[in-house]
Amino acid sequence: MNTPTKVLVTGGAGFIGSNFVLHWVEAGGSVVNLDLQTYAGNPENLASLLGNPRHILVRGDICDASLVAELLRQHRPAAIVHFAAESHVDRSIAAPDAFVRTNVNGTFTLLEQARRHWSSLSDHERSTFRFLHVSTDEVYGSLKAEDPAFCETTPYAPNSPYAASKAASDHLVRAYFHTYGFPALTTNCSNNYGPFQFPEKLIPLVILNALEGKPLPVYGDGGNVRDWLFVGDHCSAICNVLEKGRLGETYNIGGNSERANLDVVKTICKLVDEFRPNPAMGPREKLITFVTDRPGHDRRYAINASKISAELGWQPSIQFEDGLRQTVAWYLEHSGWVQNVRTGAYRDWIRRNYDERVAQ
Questions:
Q1: Would residue 206 count as lying in a domain?
Q2: Is the peptide bond before 4 cis (omega within 30 degrees of 0)?
Q3: Active site residue: 35, 137, 170, 200, which one?
Q4: CA–CA distance, 78 with 75 (Å, rounded to integer)
Q5: What is the predicted pLDDT for the residue at 346?
Q6: Range(s) of the domain holding residue 113
Q7: How many domains in the chain?
Q8: 281 is a domain residue
Q9: Cβ atoms of 268 and 203 closer than 8 Å
Q10: 274 is catalytic
């Protein structure tokens, strides 16, 4: 499958999804973009595509079987790239039902309608059709400091409602390949960062709070370790899997950039101090506030991405420090975007999730 190709993208107004849509269209492809446009699905991410005939944005729910079936019938995409998901662990702890609905039931609905559509295609169309399911490293559970990184055969051990719902969706995708011969692929990625990320997540939250002189909440002792992947690298990896991946396989996508949360926060403080110095405020590091850890907080994630490297020739191209510098600069330069996503509902969530936690 080579671009230009028409694909159906779910969740394409969200953080990773919108970056992928922009990447795909820039490469010459076309996108039918199905997004429910909840709090984190922001059409403004796609403003540069306004009026572009190669991008169609449809507001709708992946749980709506008739809508999914109609989009497949009408547009006949060569592939489906499935990003749509509830993805914030803290929200899954507060309201797990939404995660089961979207991540499990939504993926099932999408798979079933895609399977029916695929079965109706000509032999050639059926042979080239692809369904790529985008998942997370959190399905594998937590690692100790001395443990080897997650690989594709690591047993699943999800520890949050979010991770459990994504694990369930991964299993459904696998089952559809083995039961029906449905041409599915799965990717499990590490923590993404970059432009357009909703500011409830660690990196954009810390950037904006540091800029404004607000407390920088750090869970527990700040020693939780994550492997960080620049979103542009993630998009290029997905394209490689879509193009060359073996059907039924899983590919782990990582950034080879393990960092403790506290180190990430301190690096962001230094960058904001550099870009927007404020002598009256002083070093932003003094804003760091340790708060009560969230329940079931996994200590460490790490991705072994040797399979995608060996089979498909993909490697991350952005070093973490370079990507973080680009990300901080982007948020500081896009104050209008930031203001528009910071609704009253968002402020209420931040208050409940961070401000009301007991400082340690």
A1: no
A2: yes
A3: 137
A4: 9
A5: 47
A6: 6-196+228-256+297-319
A7: 1
A8: no
A9: yes
A10: no
Query: In the chain, how long is the greatest CA-to-CA distance?
Result: 69
Q: Which residues contact 186 (CB under 8 A, 6 or more apart)?
A: 132, 133, 135, 170, 173, 174, 249, 250, 251
Choose, from 35, 61, 140, 162, the residue flagged as catalytic: 162
> pLDDT tens across 194-247, in order?
999 988 889 999 999 999 999 999 999 999 999 999 999 999 999 999 999 999
Question: What whole-number distance in Å separates Cα of residue 305 and Cα of residue 82?
Answer: 21
Backbone angles phi, psi at 203, to 5 degrees: -65, -50
Residue 292 lies in a domain: no
The single residue of 138, 200, 233, 298 carrying the catalytic annotation is 138
Q: How far is CA 63 from CA 74, 126, 350, in A?
A: 18, 24, 28
Looking up tokens 């403003």, which residue turns up?
Answer: 47
Distance CA 321, CA 228 (A): 10
The pLDDT-based confidence of 297 (bands split at 50, 70, 90) is confident
d(CA 74, CA 202): 40
Q: Is 162 a catalytic residue?
A: yes
Is 312 domain-assigned?
yes
44 is catalytic: no
Q: CATH number, domain at 192?
A: 3.40.50.720
